[in-house]
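Consider the following assembly input.
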Amino acid sequence: MRLRERFRMSGAALACVLAGVLALGGCSLFGDDSGGSSESGGGSAPRSSASPQDIPYDVTPLIKPAKKYYGAAVPGAPISMKNIDAYTAKTGKQPNLIEYYAAWGDGFDATGVRNAWAEGALTLMSWEPFDTSLADIAAGRSDAYIKEYATAVRKLNLPVVMDFADEFNGHWEKWGTHDATPAQYVAAWRHIHQTFVDVGATNVIWAWAPNIVNPVKNVRLKPYYPGDAYVDWIGLVGYFTIGQDNAFDSVFGPTRDEIRTFTRKPMLLLETAAMPGERRRADVRNLFAGVTADDDMLGFIWFDYKKRADWRLEASPLALTEFKRLAADDRFGFDVRKPS
Amino acid sequence: MTSRPEYYTPQPYDPYAEEEQQGGWFNSDGYLPHRPQGHEVPQGYHQAPQGYDTPQDYGVAHGHPVPQEYDTAQGYHQVPQGYDSPQGYHQVPQEYDTAQGHHQVPQEYGIPEGYGYDPGAHAHQQPAGQPAYPGQTAEEEPAAPAEPGYHVPETPEVGWDMAASRRRAWVSRAVLLCVLAVQAVLSLRLANTAFQDEALYLAAGHAELQHLLHGTPLPIDYAAYFSGSPQLYPVLAAAVDDVLGLTGARLLSLAFMLGTTGLLYSFTRRLFNERAALAGAALFAVVQSTVVMGYFATYDAAAVFLLALATWIVVRTDRAPVAAVLLAVPVAVLAVGVKYAAGLYLPTIVVLALLTGWPHQGRKAFLRMLLFALGIGALLAAGMYGTDLMAGVRQTTTDRDHGSDSTAFLLQRSGEWGGLMFLTAVGGAVSYVRRSRMNESPAAQRLGNPGWRWRALLGLVLCGTALLAPAYQIHLGTVVSLFKHVGFGLLFAAPMAGVGVTRLIGAHFRYPQLGIMLWTATLCLGISQADWRFGVWPDSSKMIRVIDSHVDRKGHYLASTPEVPVYYLRDKTSHRQWQGVFALEYTDKKGTYHQGDEAYRAALRDGEFDLIVLDGLTNPRVDTVVADAVKGNPHYRLLADLPFRNSSGTGHYRIWTKTS
């Protein structure tokens, strides 16, 4: 009977051994993997618990939104939103596109972009290569900087508009027609763009920003155009100035028409304002009317600086009042966090 | 008394002793005697005299030529009859010489009352609830009993019963439950989004379901290129997916695989015994193929389950009327319908119909095999002519494109994924051919065992089946699906692997550590390989969320693995809208026809696709062609770059959207 008992017990013993081996072996094996398996997710459908932040921000709805951008460039913004708040107070509407200027070599101002975003505004950074030639950038001599910059932009994962070396068709800039060729400009642009793409910084809207052709009629724009694959917006830099016709089409029409011969990309008045004075009120009216009339015109950024002239709105109270009235139009301004 | 009585150990048998080869091709009549010669009369006799201080002349008497009568007392000579009456031998040597045959044959040792005598029922084949051997010891009435001077208490030959018992059945089932629990845990700990094959079958299943229920036209002709019928498993899985999602479809596979292990246990138990069955099931439950197929919404789990069921029916009906084997025919054919490659294993089941039937039915087993084969052939032929699946069979199974994977690579992979269990099975088969006995009980020694040819054939068939898939894939030169097909073969090798483990452990659990080591090694390999396998493809959840808002019912899309978005976004897009990276024909706007890489370039030049999703894994060469064509392309903008980590390291999803 002992043998028989032993045989029968052995079955149970085997069960215990199996369970024990699993428990002992399993603990460590399962423990090693716990991080990995929770990371990899799974289940019947892509996980819904993940936050939207873990996928790259999709900027495509912002490239051609239904409403117009209502932008402003004010000193100190967006790192400080104080002047933006003041601008909002005087115009009665919160800008949803804030431009600031950064020199080639500066770090990326992620805090400023976040500040603007927190108030429903997109940041446009005008990147100006004062100390580095376009040829050097195109040749890859700034690659470490570009990569670091692009990585910071990607990591922020909020939409940012970038224009590089604006007013390139003017002779007054260090990267202008006196100092660089169109080919160098295009090569530098494409090189920067490709580096951003390689890093995966897809949250950048690329704005190509020529000065309006009126003062530089002999400079053709097409040779400077990097191509539709590298550009999302055409950003025009142009002002209503005394001494020229203030009709919208007179100021922006020639440039727009020339550009439309080689691209259909949407346009933005990336930097505009009107000289202070009696005519500003009419200029403002023409500005709003011109932007509203053109479906391909995304909006404008008012350059609210006192620089060479006093472009600030408060410089002409009557024009400010008109500006405020026109800005109240629902077609201008929207929360960029909810574009549609 | 001897001077060293403490060394005496009664050894009624030696479980490791070589058994004599028995006559007959299969020796199906089982009770063929162990023909004794004088010198091989049980050793116990030789030892017993020492223990019992038997007089010297016992040896003399024993050495006498065995008379003819003794020889005819078939099978009974092994019963150690002398323990309780050494005196009888001592006192009546003459009678022993002249009439011992009649005296020694114990009447009780004939076929006992109530014992369902089946000449083919080997001791190790234990139908439930039926004692394979009564476990009785013979009692002898000495020819001329002399009153001994002392009394030796009656000692049973064995202290336990090798017959099946309710308790043993429940213990086995408890262990089996543990095995199944381990298998379930190993499968359930796997996690990833749908693999492209899963996505394809489920998406196809949904389309077929819509077609069946509402007459919605199929987006593409799945039957033309599927490796199994799109109307069988995909429809079932899609129905489950509708209710429980991908997890539900995978749980369906888990149920199939647990069922497979259960059936494996059951038919191995019938072929051999519980111990081999549990060992075989325990090994099978932890190999990569079983663990992965148990959480993989593809045909494979269903097909392997149906193969196991067909095998189980064949083994279970070994003693039933020949026609009963036909019960397995629809199951076997269904397995082939579910996955065409399952047909590779039908010859094994056909041969098993012969082998399992032979010991019980003799030559009628050939009829059984023939009937089974004809049944399968007839049903398969009917199925092929009744459906339009032949194109798919040719495309995916018989005329499959030959790959470029080398033989050495495929052998190495096969070895890694199934080698340990296969070697165990080969060891088991060799050991089984050499010694058939499956039970420690001395009673087992006396019962008939299948002949060595039968055993060799069984070992060859079961082990050889495990080689079919690797051999065929080496012929095709492709590693695609090899890990699953290795698992199909291991199902058949598992019984022999079970025998191997029991032999390794030895009688009376002499070396349990060897069995545990083997199982633990298999477990560790299985876990790591299954984890690796489930991490081969990238987690697609982020990719799906990125493209979700860019997909509609009108667009035309290009993707490395179109099946995945087609499955996940089936509510808003159709398979028809998606193009893969393996073949493209394109006629450009000027009417020029392109194919191959040039077709991709021309289509992208024209901005043909509204969305492009590359993973860099599925077809890296074409991915590069596409990425180059998109670079500087005015129609496209990089929408997202999604890094992922998979078994091979890291990679990126790159997604472009058409902007103009």
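Chain A has one domain: 57-327. Ask yourself how this observation constrains the way the partners meet.
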